[in-house]
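Bug report (template v2)

What were you trying to do?
Predict the complex of my protein with zinc ion.

What happened?
Run completed; filing so the output is reviewed.

Input:
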Amino acid sequence: MIQKSRFAPSPTGYLHLGNARTALFAWLAARHDGGSFVLRIEDTDRERSPRQYEDALLEDLRWLGLDWDEGPDCGGAHGPYRQMERQAIYGELYQRLLDSGLAYPCYCTPEMLAAEREQQRAAGRAPRYSGRCRDLDASARADMEAQGLRPSLRFRVATTGRLRVADLIWGEREYALADLGDFVIRRSDGSPAFFFANAVDDALMGVDLVLRGEDHLSNTPRQILILQALGLTPPRYGHLPLLLGRDAQPLSKRHGAASLRDLREAGFLPQALRNYLARLGHHYAEEDGRLLDDTELRQRFRLEGIGRAPAHFDLEQLEHWQAQAVQSMTTEQLAAWLAAELAELAEPEDRRAFVELIRPNIHFPAQVRDWLQRLLHDPEPDPEALRVLRETPEEFWAAAAHSFSAQAEDWKAWVAALQEASGRRGRALFQPLRAALTGRLHGPELAGWCALMGSERCRQRLAQAGRWAQSSAPI
Ligand code: GLU
Ligand code: ZN
């Protein structure tokens, strides 16, 4: 039973798809059990965290359909929810660690530390802090301070013993404490180090489930040591395998999208994204490939369904979910989604009829724009359609115009009359008509198309078709 999970992004750019998936998993896991969800902004890298990215992040998460009970915008009982506003809280905890001897100031300069690592590497050992400042006495420290050195703060790790860490996805791992080395919990500029702020915030905020990227797996033992030293309860951790592109390379623009915003701007629906992301590295029991609604997505989400293999993002699969999401919308939802594209249609009734007509033919708003242009403004036939117009003899167009004039309001009667007059049926009949009326060879159902276009425009297009057939416009 999960009480509370969270998403803790560092707002250094637009929300990466891998992080969007992490956020979605954490949210689904919390909401599955009716638990609550926290959004915490990890902005300790001050230069790289301008406020505009935080705003974009909240907007993108909301667009994806996530909501949170505590966060920088709505507050909550365990705030503030931006780490740089939590310095006073960290200050007290640092003091407790200092008082109990579990943390100590380290005066080593970056150059000294780099030289130390270089030596260890040359000797074939894993780089680790040497412990130079571990046992400085009060007068040595006073000396350093007098020289104007600003210390970082290090956590003192026992040099013997082992630590077992359980992970929901990777199982239990054991670490020799001596291998960890004393690590920095406060930087020399006073800002909190990731290990520290991240761990104590989870505990102080009452988070009992942390889902995050696999790249944080090796941070967990240090974080647990900090929490143990402070008498705080660690959450359960689960580290999600990486999200890669179809070619198994890290996800980037080359794969069609790297951020959630790219996909949003390309016209994808949040419902499609939720359905696809929820299946990347997680599988639903009794998966039948059906689009799940939000209740199903969270009720059927299981931590046991998360696998260890890297997941591969594939734009084509996302399009498959997009198609299903378009099919599943009500007429009203469809019209609302496409409101901007439909602006030229004044009558709400026409909008509804139009979206229903083109629903099977569209995945993205840009395609709707194209069909509406074709409906309202005489389209130039595309090359395939032009070829069909040319191959259709003049007599057919004359017969079409003639029978149309007699039966303009009755599609069925018109088609029957034209069939009779031209001797054509099926594809031979409908393909040239479609080419003339829409300028393409594939598209929406023609009867509905004509009804929306109105008989006057239909007549004009049939007449125009004969002219296109005779024109010498290049194909
Ligand atoms: N700010 C960290 C990140 O974005 C959070 C890691 C975590 O979820 O614990 O990678
Ligand atoms: Zn030192």
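What did the reviewer find?
DSSP finds 21 helices and eleven strands in the chain. The first helix runs from residue 17 to 32.
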